[in-house]
Design brief:
The structure is a single chain. This protein is mainly α. The chain has 21 helices and no strands. Helix 3 runs parallel beside helix 13, helix 3 packs across helix 16 and helix 7 runs parallel beside helix 19. It starts with 8 loop residues before the first helix and ends with a helix.
Length: 512
């Protein structure tokens, strides 16, 4: 076993310089578009003129997040090859269908009806403020849970290169998020995420290739793992409990559920589908650019992330599991540090960009959803200037919630924590968002029953998973299948919205 890398002044300074440069670029973008975020609507969706490359990169950045750039490595470091299923081997099967089947319809619908949030789209689609408020509340709860993982990811990179306390690492992370969201709103966030997406993809690719080189290739990697524990080579780990988080590594129920998790989560993530709100109408050539951008950023590097975690386990054994509160999530940062200051700087900046982009998108989504989907729905006479001010205040307030939670009770394994929120978002909104764009017969009652059941099932189920009485894979099926049955069944038993404008949109969209 090799000794763990120590924080060095050189790596710390270069990493801080890389992050500072990233923030300067993002800050500059924020100031450039500041004059375009002076109204409530423009703050939430910009001017709806962002092109396919920036949109595609922003979608990839929001989807990858701290889960892909940090959490995946922690999973395979902890359980070995059986973690590949949960660590992202199915990633491309989620992001590509989202772009292929949702992007154009969702963008066209939002532009046609001039709506500002994902829940606002659902209000128009189902002609129901109750659907909007319910969707907004469900998204707020689940995105708050998911944002905790992003904040831990950002703070982990600070710890790896500086060794600072958890409080300081977390504080540095939230200050950055608050500043550039307050400045640029949706457009600033979208352009910043677009730049960050390319950086995340390059960083994960570089560290993965370095990790494979460091262990001497795939064959030698397996030899080093087998010396520690032959179970690390297994694609299924029946030696692990078939309940709790480990079910996704130990049984076919858990392993197969990971496909459905990734298939649904891209479409179900409001902070991902919201990237299409500000997109311009695309030509066929634009659409190809969008698809290729997403594929190369979210598809190509992602398979190497799991190799990074396995390589870290081969080199350091289980040493990282003893470092609290970061544990296995230090696998990738430490691996990057073995490559010197240049690789460390690229990866730490990329990781910070991944966590920052998703956290910013979610915080902006939560704040905007509270004002647009809840407050304005209840009090429609409030002035746009007041709503804009309230949204900016909420950006600060909402960011402090995951900060406190992560400081007091940080999740031990980042990806496992985030997956439980992803199960809820994917299992619910694959039906309510994607389903509503293709199935005209869907009703408000069907959508409401789906969302209420889904949030209840995931919150209760997550407690059972944490108490080792229910498997995470089983929870995925309970949420996904239950939501689907209620969405379809209740819709068939109730009267459809019957709104003429929506009917006309479906007809026109079909003609296109």
């Amino acid at each position: 076993m090799q000794p763990l890398p120590e924080p060095s002044l050189s790596s710390a300074l270069w990493s801080i310089a890389g992050i500072a440069l990233l923030l300067l670029i993002c800050g500059y973008i924020g100031f450039v578009v500041k004059n375009k975020a002076t109204t409530f609507e423009n703050y939430l969706v910009g001017e709806r003129n962002i092109g396919p490359v920036i949109t595609g990169s922003a979608v990839a950045a929001g989807y990858l997040s701290g889960w892909a750039a940090l959490g995946m490595m922690g999973v395979t470091y902890t359980v070995g090859w059986s973690g590949m299923w949960f660590a992202g081997i199915w990633t491309i099967f989620g992001i590509v269908p989202c772009v292929l089947f949702v992007a154009r319809k969702f963008s066209n619908f939002s532009q046609h009806f001039q709506v500002q949030t994902v829940a606002d789209v659902l209000r128009v689609r189902f002609n129901s403020k109750a659907v909007q408020v319910t969707a907004g509340l469900v998204m707020i709860v689940l995105m708050l849970i998911y944002s905790i993982g992003q904040l831990k990811a950002a703070a982990t990179c600070w710890y790896a290169v500086t060794g600072l306390s958890p409080f300081l690492c977390l504080s540095l992370s939230i200050v950055v998020v608050i500043i550039y969201m307050l400045i640029g709103g949706y457009t600033g966030t979208q352009w910043a995420m677009g730049i960050q997406g390319f950086l995340v993809g390059a960083a994960c690719l570089a560290v993965g290739l370095w990790a494979l080189y460091l262990v001497g290739g795939p064959a030698n990697l397996n030899e080093l793992l087998a010396v520690q524990d032959a179970n690390l080579l297994a694609l299924k780990r029946p030696d692990l409990p078939a309940v709790g988080n480990t079910q996704v590594f130990s049984s076919m129920v858990g392993i197969t559920s990971t496909f459905f998790l990734f298939f649904t989560m891209a479409t179900g993530f409001p902070h991902v589908t919201a990237r299409f709100l500000g997109m311009r109408r695309l030509t066929k050539k634009d659409y190809m650019k969008l698809m290729l951008t997403v594929f190369f950023i979210a598809g190509v590097p992602i398979f190497l992330n799991a190799i990074t975690g396995l390589s870290a386990r081969a080199i350091w054994g289980d040493e990282l599991l003893r470092i609290q509160p970061w544990e296995a999530d230090l696998a990738a940062p430490f691996m990057a540090m073995t490559g010197g200051a240049s690789l460390t700087t690229l990866y730490i900046t990329g990781l910070f960009a991944a966590a920052l982009s998703s956290l910013a998108a979610m915080i902006l989504g939560i704040a905007g959803s509270i004002t647009r989907d809840v407050v304005q729905s209840i009090k429609p006479d409030l002035s746009p200037s007041f709503l804009l001010l309230l949204t900016r205040i909420l950006v600060v307030v909402v960011t402090l919630i995951p900060f406190y939670w992560t400081l007091v009770a940080p999740p031990p394994l980042l990806a496992a924590w985030m997956a439980q929120a992803a199960i809820g978002l994917g299992g619910i909104f694959i039906w309510v968002i994607a389903g509503s764009l293709y199935w005209k017969r869907a009703t408000a009652a069907g959508a409401m029953s789906c969302m209420i059941y889904g949030i209840a099932a995931v919150l209760v189920g997550s407690l059972l998973v944490s108490n080792q009485t229910l498997g995470m894979g089983t929870l995925m099926y309970i949420v996904l299948v239950g939501c689907g049955v209620l969405y379809v069944g209740v819709s068939l038993l109730t009267k459809p919205p019957g709104r003429e404008q929506v009917e006309q949109f479906f007809a026109a969209d079909k003609a296109r």
